[in-house]
């Protein structure tokens, strides 16, 4: 398994994916990977999420498919059993962090404050998710953390778009961003995979030069 830092270096954007119809999983993964985004985060927000992960892994063996919105030890076990390459959470409750450590799962725990970032750094996490990025202070907050916490790198997610992603990626403590703008709901519902591939490619073209790897 790749470390979180290695995962974040593969592309400037980690797509945050919500799958309601498992039939969408394979073509969606193919479109995103063809557009240059090989790291895929499928959130555990629907009943078909784990099945969708399996479909994506089968359709795109070279993709790195993980799960998002993990909330407890049961989620960690289910994702490990499903062969997820990594996990992501919106926060970092102690029980979840203990389960992650026991499982040895590459993980991006969520934080929104300096105290939370410091606590996660003390537990050995070098890369953490900054969520909800826009509501929690955006680039200005992360900029203020760069000097006192130089060893912590962030993946801002929540309110991130192609328009504001450059502001995040220019910061020294941001290694990647997470976002759903490359998967518009209308394109997903109509199966417009060409549009999704084009949005992924546009994101890579615009943001890869700003990424620090």
TrEMBL record:
Reactions performed catalytically: 2-dehydro-3-deoxy-6-phospho-D-gluconate = D-glyceraldehyde 3-phosphate + pyruvate
Species this protein is from: Paroceanicella profunda
EC number annotated for this UniProt entry: 4.1.2.14
PANTHER family membership: 2-DEHYDRO-3-DEOXY-6-PHOSPHOGALACTONATE ALDOLASE-RELATED, 2-KETO-3-DEOXY-6-PHOSPHOGLUCONATE ALDOLASE
EC class of the enzyme, as a word: lyase
Protein's pathway: Carbohydrate acid metabolism; 2-dehydro-3-deoxy-D-gluconate degradation; D-glyceraldehyde 3-phosphate and pyruvate from 2-dehydro-3-deoxy-D-gluconate: step 2/2
The keyword Signal appears for this protein: yes
Family (UniProt): Belongs to the KHG/KDPG aldolase family.
GN (gene name): eda
Listed CDD domains: KDPG_aldolase
Entry annotated with the keyword ATP-binding: no
Signal peptide: 1-25
Tree of life domain: Bacteria
NCBIfam families: eda (TIGR01182), PRK05718.1 (NF004325)
Subunit-structure text: Homotrimer.
Protein name: 2-dehydro-3-deoxy-phosphogluconate aldolase
Any one Gene Ontology molecular-function term assigned to this protein's record: 2-dehydro-3-deoxy-phosphogluconate aldolase activity
This protein's UniProt keywords: Carbohydrate metabolism, Lyase, Schiff base, Signal
């Amino acid at each position: 398994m790749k470390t979180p830092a290695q995962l974040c270096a593969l592309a400037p954007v980690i797509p945050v994916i919500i799958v309601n119809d498992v039939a969408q999983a394979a073509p969606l993964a193919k479109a995103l990977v063809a557009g240059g985004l090989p790291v895929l985060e499928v959130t555990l927000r629907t009943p078909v999420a784990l099945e969708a992960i399996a479909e994506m892994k089968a359709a795109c063996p070279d993709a790195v498919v993980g799960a998002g919105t993990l909330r407890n030890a049961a989620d960690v076990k289910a994702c490990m059993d499903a062969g997820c390459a990594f996990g992501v959470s919106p926060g970092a409750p102690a029980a979840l962090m203990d389960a992650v450590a026991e499982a040895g799962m590459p993980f991006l725990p969520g934080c929104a404050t300096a105290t939370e970032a410091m606590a996660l750094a003390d537990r050995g996490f070098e890369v953490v998710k900054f969520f909800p990025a826009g509501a929690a202070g955006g680039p200005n907050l992360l900029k203020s953390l760069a000097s006192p916490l130089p060893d912590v790198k962030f993946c801002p997610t929540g309110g991130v778009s192609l328009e504001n992603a450059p502001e995040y990626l220019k910061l020294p403590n941001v290694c990647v961003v997470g976002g759903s703008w490359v998967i518009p709901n209308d394109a997903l519902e109509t199966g417009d995979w060409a549009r999704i591939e084009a949005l992924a490619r546009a994101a890579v073209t615009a943001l890869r030069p700003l990424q620090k790897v």
